[in-house]
């Protein structure tokens, strides 16, 4: 493995751990305000502008409205200072569901 690749991998792992720590702190708020009882990270990707984006999987006690999901996505983007995309466990279908559920790291 090249040194540059190893350094980048270390940065990504450090960022993921920082994001997980922040999400752990916000978990009680997410439960109270959005009825989310389970959340996990399943992807940290770089978009075409070299900005990082975080994919979060949620499961809930009571289904949130589309407006609530958008509000949640915006709130997490602001708090985590990284673009967040929210996916619901019930919304996953087929092979995509299998892939995401095999990759997710729950918090």
From TrEMBL:
It comes from Crocosphaera chwakensis CCY0110. This is Uncharacterized protein. InterPro entries: NT_sf (IPR043519). The lineage of its organism: Bacteria, Bacillati, Cyanobacteriota, Cyanophyceae, Oscillatoriophycideae. It comes from the Bacteria.
């Amino acid at each position: 493995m090249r040194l540059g690749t190893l350094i980048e991998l270390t940065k990504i792992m450090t960022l993921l751990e920082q994001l997980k720590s922040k999400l752990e702190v916000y978990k009680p708020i997410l439960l109270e305000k959005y009825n989310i009882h389970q959340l996990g990270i399943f992807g940290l990707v770089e978009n075409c502008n070299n900005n990082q984006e975080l994919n979060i999987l949620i499961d809930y006690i009571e289904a949130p409205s589309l407006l609530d999901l958008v509000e949640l996505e915006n709130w997490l983007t602001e708090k985590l200072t990284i673009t967040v995309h929210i996916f619901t466990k019930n919304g996953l279908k087929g092979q995509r569901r299998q892939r995401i559920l095999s990759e997710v790291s729950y918090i």
